[in-house]
UniProtKB/TrEMBL annotation:
Keyword Transmembrane tagged: no
Keyword Nuclease: no
Entry protein name: Metalloprotease
Keywords annotated in UniProt: Hydrolase, Metal-binding, Metalloprotease, Protease, Signal, Zinc
Named cofactor requirement(s): Zn(2+)
Signal peptide: 1-22
InterPro entries assigned to the protein according to its UniProt record, in alphabetical order: Mito/Outer_Membr_Metalloprot (IPR051156), Peptidase_M48 (IPR001915)
Length: 489
């Protein structure tokens, strides 16, 4: 799904464009959802056996937070994989085994070795066994259809054509040819996604699952994107992005429903919602607390042992790259990241070393932040104004950047008050840190979507998240006696 990362990009773009961050943490590379996992051309080919020590296996674990231990969920998914293998286009050829990845990102991959990966974020979004089966069958479809190899071949072919065009024709013609070839590769990749969708629908139907599970999951995926857009100010894409390797979700939903209807009317096949919910009960939800977590406006990192609070009205989101924040009005943003403290260099020298563009040298000031040495400064770039703070704690520098179109006295005060909240946390506070989890509850006769959502521990819009996680439309009531997902501490 997301190439890594779908995080507050539009608001943080102001920070990224105007501030040249030298030494940023490496971006976690997330593949697009349901995309065939690329095989680096310089890497050795994988064997057909379940080689758990393979290069790609290690890379995926490193990129997606490592392996998450959830015995019940793993056994349940592996049982589904046995059924899918028997119903696949190549029955008996490869025995797949699942690995759950410790990340809230919604994603899945399959390797020719038989390793299949799903994230715990995907487990939270899927509503029943048929939806989880659809995702895994789609990934296996990429492998059986040899999509990674075919796409790599298409990309090499496009590169050769573009290079030849540049040599034979003018530079402008070469650029036009490169643009045409990029569109060709994107279209090719989108068709692969549709082919894998259709293959997956047919396979899960043969395995006895509800063939409409794929359409339901893709619908939930679209709703998830819309909710994030509403929360963090990202505009919804109006159609195909020619640089994307995936078709728009509405088209995929339509195609998945069309294939399912060719198999039978809605209501056929097994969904096993109760069994699926029992298997994922207690699975972690959201950020891994040891890698930092958000509660309301507060961010805490138990492993690095620090905490800070954003100004009122900010929404925060954590990633391995940085913590991003934005106000709903989308005219203020923030970013917090960390780098190792350069040896034998003062904080003032570091700030003036070219780390930021548009720095106003006269604005550099030394301050104390809860006993930690720090420097603040102001930078300007285009229509954006930046209040910066670099705080030294042990071997690390923590860099806070606040961006505003107009750095008013009120905004200045709020930003400085937020900087003042940065502090070291005690070992006891670090040990007490705990994350969120999925809890499966049974609706009572007096329960409503609102009453169950009120039991949710989510930073924002619990009712919308409750409906999203449980596949409920706005007008759809909860049913007494039915089981539902909620998020608790």
């Amino acid at each position: 799904m997301t190439r890594r990362r779908d995080l507050l990009r539009r608001a943080a773009l102001a920070v990224a464009c105007a501030v040249a961050l030298a030494n940023c943490a490496e971006l976690e590379r997330q593949g697009q959802l349901f995309g065939p996992t690329p095989t680096p051309p310089t890497r050795p080919a994988l064997s057909k056996t379940d080689n758990r020590s393979s290069v790609q296996h290690k890379e995926l674990l490193a990129q997606f937070g490592g392996e998450y231990q959830a015995v019940a969920a793993e056994h349940y998914l592996n049982d589904i994989l046995v059924k899918l293998a028997q119903a696949s286009e190549t029955p008996g050829q490869t025995a797949y085994k699942v690995t759950i990845l410790n990340t809230p990102v919604v994603n899945a991959f399959a390797l020719p070795s038989g390793n299949l990966y799903v994230t715990r974020g995907l487990l939270a979004l899927a509503g029943d066994a048929s939806e989880a089966a659809a995702v895994m069958a789609h990934e296996i479809g990429h492998v059986t259809l040899r999509h990674s190899a075919l796409r790599a071949e298409k990309e090499r072919e496009a590169a050769l054509i573009s290079q030849a065009a540049t040599v034979i024709q003018s530079r402008q013609k070469g650029e036009e040819e490169r643009s045409k070839q990029r569109l060709s590769v994107a279209s090719f990749s989108r068709q692969q996604e549709i082919d894998a969708d259709e293959t997956g629908v047919r396979v899960i139907a043969r395995a006895g699952f509800d063939p409409y599970g794929a359409a339901r999951f893709l619908t939930a995926l679209g709703r998830s994107s819309e909710l994030r857009a509403a929360l963090y100010g990202k505009r919804k894409d109006s159609g195909f992005d020619i640089t994307s390797t995936h078709p728009s979700t509405p088209e995929r939903v339509t195609r998945a429903i069309t294939v399912a209807r060719q198999i039978g009317a809605p209501g056929i096949g097994n969904r096993d919602r109760a069994g699926y919910l029992a298997a994922i009960n207690g699975v972690a939800f959201g950020d891994d607390p040891m890698e930092g977590f958000v509660r309301d406006r507060k961010f805490t990192h138990p492993r690095l042992r620090f905490a800070f609070a954003a100004p009122e009205g900010f929404l925060l989101e954590n990633s391995s790259e940085a913590v991003f924040g934005v106000r709903q009005a989308d005219n203020e943003a923030l970013r917090l990241d960390t780098v190792r403290n350069p040896p034998s260099e003062s904080l003032e020298a570091y700030v003036a070393s070219g780390w930021v563009d548009g720095l106003l040298p006269s604005s550099v000031r030394k301050i104390d932040v809860n006993g930690l040495p720090a420097v603040t400064a102001v930078a300007r770039a285009g229509e954006w104004n930046f209040r910066l703070a670099v705080i030294q704690s042990g071997e690390y520098l923590y860099r806070l950047i606040f961006a505003a179109r107009a750095l008013t006295d009120q905004a200045e005060k709020e930003f400085m008050d937020s900087i003042a909240t940065f502090r070291r946390i005690t070992p006891e506070e670090a040990r007490e840190a705990h994350g969120l989890k999925l809890s499966i509850v049974t609706a009572g006769t007096a329960d409503t979507a609102e009453s169950l959502a009120a039991r949710m521990t989510t930073p924002n819009r619990p009712l919308e998240y409750f409906r999203l996680l449980n596949g409920l439309d706005e007008s759809e009531p909860v049913v007494a006696g039915e089981r539902y997902k909620i998020v608790t501490e």
